[in-house]
Design goal:
The structure holds two protein chains of two kinds.
Chain A lengths: L10 H31 L20
Chain B lengths: L13 E2 L9 E6 L2 E7 L3 H9 L2 H7 L6 E4 L9 E7 L13 H20 L2 E3 L7 E4 L2 E4 L5 E3 L9 H17 L17 H7 L8 H19 L16 H16 L12 H4 L4 H18 L3 E5 L5 H8 L3 E6 L2 H14 L4 E5 L27 E4 L3 H7 L4 H11 L2 E6 L5 H7 L11 H8 L3 E8 L6 E7 L1
Parallel strand pairs in B: 10-11, 10-13, 11-12, 13-14
Antiparallel strand pairs in B: 1-2, 2-3, 3-5, 4-5, 6-9, 7-8, 14-16, 15-16
Classes of the chains: A mainly alpha, B alpha/beta.
């Protein structure tokens, strides 16, 4: 890696983010936005994320 | 906090040696008080952070430390736009001293803060694990200058840092060996992703989150490093993500972190239930330790070799704030989960090998303090510890006493003689070279550094408890 010390080491990370954000946006949209709307229609509480719960660092334990 | 009268400025400020990277501000001390200064370069972001209500909401939810705004006259350097006095956390600890769940909670907090910042058109400009501390039993952000205003279509500049400070060590701890967390002591900027990817088991490529954020991330970095540098006058190509893509990425990282689990298996975590103590001896030791803690009448205690924290709890019940150190990651993990479950915010379990404690690290060895430089408790507890240091590590008793004397005025020490089953076990496979390891030898060896305030034999046990006071 001849240029390792002289380049922005984050450039690969930034490019990967762009690719991942593009790939993840559609499934995320369906899971979160459509899923929440479906929950609301069925009388659920909307933004509840079933996978978070116990792992949520911001919940007041 | 009580209102302060305008302070008389006596001493020149001393800039915190770990505070030099951020162009938006710095941390300094003046007359022993810790302040944070916002430079002109950070003024606009500081305004948005406060005017958006983000700071107030994060403080109300105890996710960021609160502060008091102070006079600009206190600034450490010219051009300050704000000076704040942050509320101090009780004990500064570092990621290489955290158990798996502590590091994971700090990671999830960082992601939650990023999500909350995105809600108001801001973001975390860095994701350093050193920006998080444990305060009253939960993680909290101490760097109030971490937020900057940014369009939601810009990639997160702290993504790489987050993966190196949190994802890589957590993934290695969960999938390779929990002791990989100690690598953070060597790599102050987080574990390099190429190294983490090489150390991870191959099967982790089947985990979509680890494949994307760790393995592909390492490849992307390697690829970028091998590219020829751009010509000097080439304009930077701005990279863009969609706002929902930004959220999707954050959601993916969060799921990846949440999915990392570690189930401890350790000899030590079950130690408290497998000791040689009878019920009588346990009750006797408990009441003797409590009596000594009450005699000291202090406010802070460090429990060395705390295991899963039986005597840390006893000290907490006696009104002490306790830092419970143990070298065994499984014991600290069990202790932390228990402290969390019981709601005992006055105890902070941390990982430490007393025979090789956390050194000072970083630039000029000043960025992160050593174990001994992080405060002086009123008393150290060394219960069922000295025989491990003396016979397990060959440390002379006098050297152990000198360490206790450096740490605190008082020490509560349990002497476990050679005829105790646990010491016999330590000696079973080795030659006994410890002629002076006797009760009389102990008394003689501590005499240079300590006065024996109390000495009590534990009922139904060959062990003796000492309350020592530094000379």
């Amino acid at each position: 890696m001849p240029f390792l010390a002289y380049i922005d080491p984050g450039s690969g990370s930034m490019l990967l983010q762009v690719l991942l954000a593009g790939a993840l946006a559609v499934p995320f949209f369906f899971r979160r936005v459509i899923g929440d709307a479906w929950h609301r229609i069925r009388g659920g509480r909307g933004t509840t994320r079933p996978d978070d719960g116990a792992e949520d660092a911001t919940s007041d334990r | 906090m009580a209102p302060r009268t305008p302070p008389a400025i006596a001493d020149p400020p001393t800039v915190d040696p770990g505070s030099f990277r951020d162009p938006a501000g710095l941390v300094f001390r003046r007359d022993g008080t810790l302040y944070r200064q916002v430079h002109q370069a950070g003024a606009a972001d500081w305004d948005v952070y406060r005017s958006s209500g983000l700071h107030d909401r994060l403080v109300a939810d105890r996710l960021v430390v609160d502060h008091v705004e102070e006079s600009l006259d206190l600034a450490a350097s010219p051009g300050a736009v704000a000076v704040i006095r942050p509320r101090l956390v009780e004990m500064v600890s570092y990621p290489y001293e955290w158990s798996f769940s502590q590091l994971k909670e700090a990671a999830l907090l960082t992601l939650d803060l990023q999500a909350r910042a995105l809600d108001v058109g801001m973001r975390l400009k860095d994701a350093s694990a050193y920006n998080i501390q444990f305060d009253a039993g939960r993680p909290i952000l101490i760097d109030t200058l971490s937020f900057e205003a940014a369009p939601p279509t810009e990639p997160w500049p702290a993504y790489r840092q987050f993966c190196e400070h949190f994802l890589a060590p957590l993934a290695l701890m969960a999938h390779r060996d929990v002791r990989c967390g100690l690598m953070l002591r060597e790599f102050i900027d987080g574990i390099p992703l190429d190294l983490a990817a090489r150390l991870m088991p191959g099967r982790t490529r089947l985990n979509p989150g680890l494949l994307a954020h760790l393995h592909l991330h390492a490849s992307a970095q390697r690829r970028a490093a091998n590219e020829a540098p751009p010509a000097h006058d080439t304009p930077k190509q701005p990279r863009r993500v969609s706002a929902i893509g930004q959220r999707a990425l954050l959601d993916s990282i969060r799921r990846t972190i949440s999915g990392l689990r570690w189930r401890p298996r350790s000899h030590w975590a079950g130690y408290a239930t497998t000791t040689s103590y009878s019920e009588t001896a346990t009750a006797s030791k408990g009441s003797l330790v409590r009596g000594m803690l009450d005699a000291v009448g202090g406010a802070t205690a460090w429990d060395l070799g705390a295991n899963t924290g039986v005597y840390s709890a006893l000290a907490a019940d006696a009104g002490y704030k306790v830092v419970a150190w143990d070298q065994d990651a499984a014991s600290v993990e069990a202790h932390w989960l228990q402290v969390r479950g019981d709601g005992r915010p006055s105890i902070l379990p941390l990982v430490l090998d007393l025979a090789n404690p956390s050194p000072a690290i970083g630039w000029a060895l000043e960025e992160r303090g050593s174990f001994l430089g992080r405060g002086e408790p009123d008393v150290v507890l060394a219960l069922a510890l000295v025989h491990h240091l003396a016979i397990g590590n060959n440390v002379p008793l006098a050297a152990i006493a000198r360490l206790f004397a450096r740490m605190a005025r008082y020490a509560i020490v349990e002497f476990v003689p050679k005829d105790d089953p646990m010491t016999r076990r330590l000696l079973a496979a080795r030659r006994d070279i410890f002629d002076s390891y006797t009760l009389d030898g102990f008394r003689a060896d501590v005499a240079a550094t300590h006065r024996i305030v109390r000495e009590d034999r534990v009922d139904d046990s060959p062990r003796t408890l000492f309350l020592l006071e530094r000379r």
